[in-house]
Amino acid sequence: MVRGRETRKEALFALILLLAGCGSGPERRTGLPTSHVPASAQARQCLADLRSTGVHFSPLPDQYFGGGCQAINSVKLLDIGTPVTNLGAMTCPLASKFAGWARYGAQPAARLILGSELVRIETYGTYACRNINGNISGNLSEHAHSNAVDVAAFVLADGRRISVRDGWQGDDRARQFLRVIHDSACKRFRTVLSPDYNAAHRDHFHFDMGGKGTYCR
Fold it and tell me: Helices 92-101 and 41-52 meet at what angle, rounded to 10?
């Protein structure tokens, strides 16, 4: 009789564990961190390379948000030498390229062309679960994979603010600065879009690491 009660208890415990396991699927789709998913060798190498540059960052847990939106092998940049606004989850390759572009592209160009130190880069953010701007196909943007960043403006130590919206067709120095750092970005990111691309990008640069080829406009 005692053995029968123990058997029923064991069966009930097993059923509880089974039901608990079935709940993990929806939780991942709503954005809770995944668990027990080891990072690939490539992802680990990217983190090591990023750390070796002196960039301060925090690795983020993998997340799935539904509808194909996700943030996998992503980090949050904390300090790249120049303050940057609105940075959220970025894939490690994107974060590495962005930090290099800010340090070796945007900052030297500000000193050389504008004659002042770059003290802040303003962005419209990184991760966003949405489709491609201006694309009627409805395809997901690289922002939906934490694989893109939109850069809007640059603030200088002398108080000037050079925005993509006003400076792309602005005075000579602003135009030169924005085109130099645009060209610098084209050497690093797989896709670079400017106001010349379409109206949806009239006020920012879009950088991403998606696709297999390169596109610069």
Answer: 20
Strands 191-193 vs 205-208: parallel, antiparallel or unpaired: antiparallel
Half-sphere exposure of 157 (CA within 13 A, CB side): 9
Tokens for 108?
A: 């030297």
CA-wise closest residue to 63 among 98, 41, 89: 89
Q: What is the DSSP string of 106-128?
A: IHHHIIIIISS-EEEEEEEES--
Strand ranges inside the chain, DSSP E: 56-59, 63-66, 69-71, 74-79, 90-91, 118-125, 148-156, 161-163, 191-193, 205-208, 215-216
- 30-89 pLDDT, tens digit per residue, is 344 443 455 789 999 999 999 999 999 999 999 999 999 999 999 999 999 999 999 999
Assigned token pair, 161: 């603010």
Residue 134 per-residue DSSP state: T
pTM: 0.81
Per-residue tokens: 195: 């106001």
Separation of alpha carbons 64 and 33, rounded Å: 8
